Fold:
Amino acid sequence: MTAALLLVALTASGPPHLQAVLDRLRREQDVPGVTAIVVNREGVVFAGASGVADLQTSEPLTPQSIFYIGSVSKVLTAVLVLQLVEAEQLSLNDAASGIAHGAGPVTVGHLLTHASGLEREGDFAYWFTAEFPDNKALQDYLATAELRTKPGTSFHYSNVGYAALGLVIERITEQSYRDALQSRVLDSLNMLASGARGSAENVVNGYTPAGRILPSPERPFAGVGKPVGKRFVRMYHDAQAMSPAFGAYASASDLGQFASFLLGNGGDEVLSMEMRSRMHKRQVSGWGLGLKIRRLSGRKVTRHDGWFAAHRTHLLLDHENGVGVVVMANSDNATPGKIADALLQAALTAESR
Structure:
């Protein structure tokens, strides 16, 4: 799907019943705003939004509104790593230098599939302190980290593992992670509103749930800002060296382009169809290469959640039907995966009529 096709498709919102699903679930989840994209092999099926980007100004959301995408950043990082593998600048079996490996070498493939044995957050308390490590602090931690298990033997989701992949990318490309992802992936896929590290301009506000501060008033997450009605604004903090794990930003329309690419539509200069197919194949850890593999209504799907600064994102890929769904919401209590499932089912039901 070309950028021109995507832009043309976005001028129409798509089937009204999909908008009704989005409106209903936003109200049920009590979320200020939600935006979504549904794509198939022909282009954009639905591009819609419900609610607002800012509770004080009532600025409406659109599919072009900018969100922090949290751990969906990992899928972008995986694509960049696999591009380097295809260019024979890197191998999945290469040891990731700088990581303590008394239990055995930690490879690039282990990091991609959360089988490295590294802890989820390492020794960092950034969710509460807002102090994210720079490259040196991350390197110092990795050099002395104790692994939970022998690499390659079990699954344990790891943000610091994907941050370590950012260091690998910088060493191979001799670019910053931000510049490498921008020039090698985002620009090539015409994801022109996206970036590999915030803070983004004109980003929508993120909010705590009504009447609550997460996780508690005694120890709130970093970045709880001013009150707005029954909610609090969540403030952004620079993820620094953790950006390859959860620091990128994008619009729903950009991520719709990305979903279409992952399903095999265009983008051969970024990653071959063969390598994209490998991303969706189950590895020893149970994950694909950068994607979670699940079953939905008896079909294999791949997906990934994202959360950062009260922005929630979900990427869902139905390979059998060639349909991708992106949902983005601006509150900590949102469950965009449930909205994505409902939009996918509604889109497939409409196609079958």
